[in-house]
Every structure is written in structure tokens, then in C-alpha cells.
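The material for today's practical consists of a large collection of protein records. There is nothing in a record beyond a sequence line and a structure line. As an example, a complete record with its sequence and its C-alpha cells follows:
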Amino acid sequence: MESLIGLVNRIQRACTALGDYGGGDNAFSSLWDALPSVAVVGGQSSGKSSVLESIVGRDFLPRGSGIVTRRPLVLQLHKTDDGQQEYAEFGHIPRRRFTDFGMVRKEIADETDRITGKTKQISPVPIHLSIYSPNVVNLTLIDLPGLTKVAVEGQSETIVEDIENMVQTYVGKPNCIILAVSPANQDIATSDAIKLAREVDPTGERTFGVLTKLDLMDKGTNALDVLEGRAYRLQHPWVGIVNRSQADINKNVDMIYARRKEREYFATSPEYGHLANKMGSEYLAKLLSKHLEQFIKARIPSITSLINKSIDELESEMDHLGRPIAVDAGAQLYTILELCRAFDKIFKEHLDGGRPGGDRIYGVFDNQLPAALRKLPFDRYLSVQNVRKVVSEADGYQPHLIAPEQGYRRLIEGALNYFRGPAEASVDAVHFVLKELVRKSIGECQELKRFPSLQSAIAAASNEALEKFRDEGRKTVVRLVDMESSYLTVDFFRKLPQEMEHTPQKGGKPEAAPAVDRYGENHFRRIGSNVSSYVNMVSDTLRNTLPKAVVYCQVKEAKQSLLNYFYTQIGKKEGKALAELLDEDPALMERRIQCAKRLELYKKARDEIDSVAWVR
């Protein structure tokens, strides 16, 4: 039966394959962070790499001066049956087995350079390495970059802070076990690993202390105060390690032989002999494996709760993103029509007041149109000079005898022509509002966000229909103005005062009043005033009728038949053309694919955790 550690290993590998890894910078890193792990922390040259190699029993890590570990290495150990060949696999090149651990070392270096370049910079993106061997215990260790105090040439000035921040994103998680590695030949009070562990785990409940280089201490000194918990107490026992010497490394001394030498060292040591059964890399591996298994088991309920919550969130997002589109032409046509109806519903809500925007059309009628009518240049057009000019031209070679009827008609027709501008401007203003509402409605239609091609097609069809409605609106409002010019209201002029008056003479006989000067300024001023009164009457009429014409020709038509022609054309399209309209935004498709993969991962993780938990 698979161990809990092995199960967690597989879930972590799956998370990394999806780009989800710890550190808090990833939107889906919560599952990774919830899974218990062991982070190995230590200063540079603390012997951290040697501890890992001792636990594995293989020489496989890159070595050198300065920062060698520049990316987190997630090391997953899987115990196999005795006699089986040891091999390693990397998460970034699955199904390729490495049996030469020298090649493993090279691949770690090459994969590090692939992200960071051949520099001394660091990256939070982890490398996943799984090792299968009969000489290991089931365990997951995360090797983090060594803590440093100064930046060297080729490194960023912030490298010290960057490394510490990266390490803290791992060890700061409550589900992370801290393996704090410190060299015995340095004062424990100056240990970088212990200092950092104390900051994130002040009670020491999650910290395991490892003391390396015991064999390199000055003669006459020992590390018993630390190992026995007097110098710095932790909740878990300190473990001493004796690493291979540099000479042994240079001679490629076998790690299994090195383990045997380590056991002999503690067994024969006068200082540490009484602790021999609780010292060494083999004991450390078993201790960590047992504790990690218990740690995982204790956190299964909270992990399951998090997974269930994440599944709900992912399913909600999948509903928001929409399910994959069917390949059947009939289903595609149905989808397109449903999407068009969703857009049309939002568009009508804007017009009817359910959403903002439709009130701007009323603003055209209540503000823009009256203001435009008031600004018409009737004062200039009906000035005495222009009235005299128009009337004289209308009379021709023979002046009018009584009232200048032709002059009146010409003045009125000329004045009424000015109304065309505001009438057409009202049509254009409403057209602009309708186009803007189409754009807003497309943007607010969540279902359409998946399909940029269909968005463009609906926008083009809507704007084409609005252009036709505008043309019809222009014709109608101009026709209204022309109707006012084509037949004048006779009663208006009949009610005008007569210019010729009679007064009674003394003795009862009538006597004609003095003849009116028909070419004087007062005469032309009176004509201009009469025409102005008539034009004002027409202006009041048009102020009421123009909005009705615009609404009837443009707004009402937009509500009733905005996409009618588009529906007709869609019905004629075949499968390929329909599929092109449902061609989704590549970024959205990728988002859905990733979301579906994560959803599958979380569901599988929940089922597997449940099955293992029930058995136990």
C-alpha cells in the first residue's frame, strides 16, 4: 500500500507540472502550501548538501564555491524493494530514468541555468527530483539556497534579502517542518539556520536541529551542550552528522561506505558514544520519515477541507468560463442564438432603464435639441436689411400692392430650412448613444467574453442595422421639416393686424388713414416680426414631433429588430462558418484547460487521500 508520504509526493509533482508550487506568489499555490514537507535550511558551507547526500546515499548534488543551490530542489525519496536498481526522474522530463547519478548532478545544474542563466541569481521555481532506491526511506525534502550575509561579484545587491525571503516563504508555512543545519565548529548562537527558524517557529515545535562537522571541532571541545539540548532547546532532539571529508569527496568515496564510517565514528566516540543510536544520517532520515508521516496524518482533515473548498471554487470558475463548445452544427447554432439573446437582453435593459445609458437619449431631446433650436441665427436672418432684400427680390420688377405674400413665403421657407441641422443632429446624437450602448452591452455580456469573433460579428451587424435606422431617421425628420415648409398655416396670417386702417371723418363720412409706407423700415420690421412668430410656432411643433420620429425610426427599431438580419444570415451558415464565430480567445481557452486540469488534480487528490485515510 502506498504511504502517505508517497501520496503527497505525487500530488506535489502534479501541482508543479501545472505551475503550482509553494511560495505564495501563485494563485493556486494553496494546495502545495497545505501539504506537509521538510525544508532544509542552512548557511553556505554549513554541510547542507552533504546531509542530503548522506540521507540519499548517493553523490548527486552540484558542488562549488558560493551559491550552488540557486533554485529550490524538491527531493522525493521512494523506498523500493531490495535488489532493485536505483534510478532518478525529474519532473520537467518525466518518464526518463537516470541511473548515472553524475548525470543527475549535471541535469540539476543545467535545469538551474535554464531559468537563472549562467549567473549567480536565484529563482523560486523549484526543480522536482524523485529518487527510487532500496537504500532510502519514504521522505520529501526541499533543499533551499544557502543563507548568506554578503553579495559577491555577479550577484544582485539584494541577494541576501532575496534568499531570506524565498526561504521564509517555505519555512513560514505552518505545515512545513524545518531541518535547520548548523556546523558544529561554529558557535550555535551565530547559526543562520537557527536564527531563521526561531523567527518563524519560536516554540521549536516544527524545527529539527542538525549539527554537522562534529569531527572537525577543535581538540578538547565537543558539541554535547547542543546535542543534549542545553545550549538551545528544541521540541525535537538534535541529531549529529559526520559528513565525508573533502578528501573523501575528491576520491569519490562510496556513500554507503561513508555511512558505515559515520556509524563507527559515533559508536567509538568517547564524547558521543552514549548517543550513538540517535546520531547519524540514517537515523535522521528515519526520524524525519516517521515524523512526516504522522504530521501528514494529523493534517488530513484540514487538507481535505481545503481541497473541497478549492474544488467548489474551481467548479464555479469553470461555470463562469463556460463549458467547451459542442462540434455539432445544430448545437453551435443554438449556442450562437442564445448568446445573441443574452446580448440583446442587456441592450434592451440599457434602453428601458434597467441599466444606465438609455437616459442619454432623453438628454438629447430635453437638452441638446432645445439648445440647438435656440442657437439658430433667426435674428440675423430676419434683420430689417435681410427682410428688405428677400422681399424686394421676391417682388421682382413689379412691387407688391398690398401684402408681400411672395416675400413672406420666401422668408418662411428660408427660415424653416434652418431646422434641418438640429433635426439631423438629433438623429446623429441618438445614433451615437445607441452605438455606445451596443459596445457596452457586448462588454457586459459575460457569456460573450469567450468568443471575440462572435463579439465582432454582433458588433458589426448591430452597427450596420443602426446605420439603416439612422438613414431612415434622417429621412423622416427632414420630411417633417419639409412638411412645415410645403403648407403654411393660413389661420396664423389671417389673425395678423391689417396695415390699412380707416378712421371716421367729421360729419360722418369715412376718411382714409394716411397710406402706410410699404418700403419703410417699420414695414419690414413688422414683416420680420410676423415671420419670427410663425417660425417660433413651427419650432415648438418640431420640438415635440422630432423626438417622436427619432424614437420611432431608431430606438424602437433597435429594440425590436437590431439583429434580425444577422439572424437570417446566421441561419444560412454551415458548420465551419459557425465554428469560426465560436473561436474562443486563446487566453480564455488556456485558462479553462488549466482550470480543468487543476480541478481533475484536486478531485483525484481528494479521492486518494480519502482512500488512504480510511485504510489507516
Observations:
- Residues 493 and 530 are 8 Å apart (CA to CA).
- The first helix runs from residue 4 to 17.
- The first strand starts at residue 37 and ends at 42.
- Confidence is low (pLDDT under 50) at residues 23-28, 500-504, 506-510.
